[in-house]
Amino acid sequence: MTLETESLGLLQEALSRLEEGFHSLPKVEHSPNLDALRIVLLEVAERMQDNYPYPHPLYVGQMLKPPTEIARLAYMLSLWINPNNHALDGGRASSAMEKEAVAEIAKMFGWEYHLAHLTSSGTMANLEALWVAGNLHPNKKVVASSQSHYTHSRICGVLRIPFQSVLCNSLNRMDIAALKKLLQEDDIGTVVVTLGTTATGSIDPLPEILELQSEYGFRIHADTAYGGYFTLVDNLDDSTRAAYDCLKNVDSIVVDPHKHGLQPYGCGCILFKDPSVGKLYKHDSPYTYFSSEELHLGEISLECSRAGSSAVALWATQRLLPLIPGGEFAGYLSKSRTAALTIFEKLQNDSRFIVAFPPELDIVVWVVKSQSASESSRLAKEIFKVAEQEKLYLALANLPKELFLESGEGINWDQDSITCLRSCLMKPEHLDWIDRIWQTLDAVTTKVLKLSMSIAT
Ligand SMILES: *Cc1c(COP(=O)(O)O)cnc(C)c1O
Prior knowledge:
Blueprint: H1 8-20, H2 34-48, H3 69-79, H4 92-108, E1 115-119, H5 122-136, E2 141-145, H6 151-159, E3 163-166, H7 176-185, E4 188-194, H8 206-216, E5 219-223, H9 238-245, E6 252-255, E7 268-272, H10 308-320, H11 328-348, E8 353-354, E9 363-368, H12 373-389, E10 395-400, E11 417-424, H13 434-456
Parallel strand pairs: 2-3, 2-4, 4-5, 5-6
Antiparallel strand pairs: 1-7, 6-7, 8-9, 9-11, 10-11
The chain binds pyridoxal-5'-phosphate.
The site of pyridoxal-5'-phosphate has 13 residues, from helix 5.
């Protein structure tokens, strides 16, 4: 693996430029004890070797994508100021950059008017969405699919909002009939629609859910923490595209720039279609708001101190790689999707594996064919382990048996769930490495199956 360091020279140049802005202040001398720093820093470098190689294309496991160079550099550069985007007093330039950056994200979703800000994570962004939902629909239930992120039920617990999960169909999407039944029987205030579930990247049927909304009148929150940016790509399936095409009709959207937006961790985003929900956040802080009459980001968010550096990095990234269909950034996502489709096709044509449904985004999940669910799960875990020894880094996911009842014909369901192999092909480079990835998976599978046969006989 080669860690990119060529761009570091730019940081030095940009720091000098930054300093020019403060030249009217008297000099302050400060020279760090380099020897002491060096010892600790090299110790850190050694400690950090104990990680999976997330930036490498042979890491195809969990949702981990390296920040792009411009994000890394802009983030580092801003650390010499260390702005706090809670209030303009703490981060004037970076607050303006945050507003510009989130306006571009809102525009990507088709919203000119909006209320939006960054958060430290998708979890915090979803918390704000459900907090607003609960305020607008007190005592009514929030529902989300059984494959939605666990954060929704947990957040509802924190907020003391009643929560119920909705069954998924054989494509791992929210089951419309099940949702309709709940709407008829219960007082549902908000439906959480996931575009890009965390386990499989599945897309809930938003067009049908919007139809139900016109009949039953609930709020819709779209959790697109993972999948939001895929609205820009040109190679989605029709039903997936249809969901994105009506995303602008929902009430709130969450997207994580630290997942597919090429940002370092600490960057989620919440967007509301109706800016007037801002009044729910109203509070009086005696400490922070003295520098201007303008709305502070701290007045429209639940978090107080927040890394202004996140906004700076995001702004810079979107400057270099605008969020436009057909652009370079969109092209990266299209490549990821093509990589997923390529692997899917290979898996589908291989009798050792079962794939229940095609990937809707860039996540592929598959099962090892075997006589029982328990044996299949064991084999998946074994392949996961041996692949790692062979420098291919996959992930595992536990999925309910209902998903595989058709595709997994002949499996003895001696348990209710099955351990699947899972791959998030998030990096654009994955497409160039796809043959290598497949060859290793192929060889590892052959090895594991051979071994398990020889043990069985
Ligand atoms: C990752 C994810 C979350 C949680 O976001 P964090 O940034 O990890 O807190 C919520 N929902 C979905 C669909 C996700 O993929």
